[in-house]
Amino acid sequence: MTLDLLQAIQLSWSPQLRVTRVTGDCERVLRRPATQILDRPLETVLGTSAEHARRLDTLARRDERAVEFLSGVLGQEDPVPLRFALGLEAGEATAVVLDLRALLRHAPPVQLSGLASQLSHELRNPLSSVKMAVQTLARNTGLSERDQRRLTIANREVRTLERMLWLLSEYARDSTPTLEPHAPRTLVEEAMAMVAPELTERGVTVRVDEAADVPRVRMDTNRLRPVLAQVLLNLAMSQAQGGQVVVTLRPEPPGRVSLSWRDPSGTLSEQESASLFEPFASSLARGTGLSLAALRRVLVHQGGEVVARSESGPDPDTGAQAGTVFTLTFVV
Description:
It is built from eleven helices and twelve strands. The chain is an alpha+beta fold and about 325 residues long. A hairpin with a 2-residue loop joins strand 4 and strand 5 (about 90-100).
């Protein structure tokens, strides 16, 4: 196996969860040279908890070629999404570790599509089982208020994982969209409905400010709706409890319609401006780091575009003094 070409490393560790062997480009994947990894605790090397390290060890020693995912805190940067292929080699617990962020950033669409398909296959079935179990438990009227709250949180996180898988699949998809006339306001309302439980829990509302003469536009709503829903949810989660997101719809000559909103939580640096719509490249994407990348990919395939600009002046709708304005453009 050519680990460097795969942007992967191979780790082995002892029953005491200390790294015994490492092969591949450690500095690229784990942000440290091999000399700083050998004989170190597994949870320290991977930037995760002792509980997660024990789980990886258990799965590896079963030698069932299990696949596991986690986000490791490696140095000063944001958590890095890692994929583990686990098993035994020469009697040692071993994992081939891939940095998904680097893999996706440079992968061609065909490779992305294959990875998305593999992830969906590996995760959707167990996730569906977890979802059914949580929903079954929630119907138990004898549960305490505290346990009901825990199940609500579990159900919310299941929905989050489902959207993450969908975003990855959508980013990789390269098929021709089905374009039909659709009202932009209806698109926004349908997207809001998809994340209504999360918006209600946080007390955040979405208000649509629509001009009187906005025409219908050509779009593939089945592909665009879930992506826009995730972007709006990420934006809502950055608001204070009980806050409001304002979405503005305006006709833009010739033959176009704009849909825009302001994210008041931060302004774009020059470096982020260049990479904002790349997967895992911007903190403004939040969540999986794929929402803005998937949004742009879907829009471009439908003849539209999305841009972002920083503004320091007050927003006429919310009074916010700074932030980043996102504008989506559709073709009539």
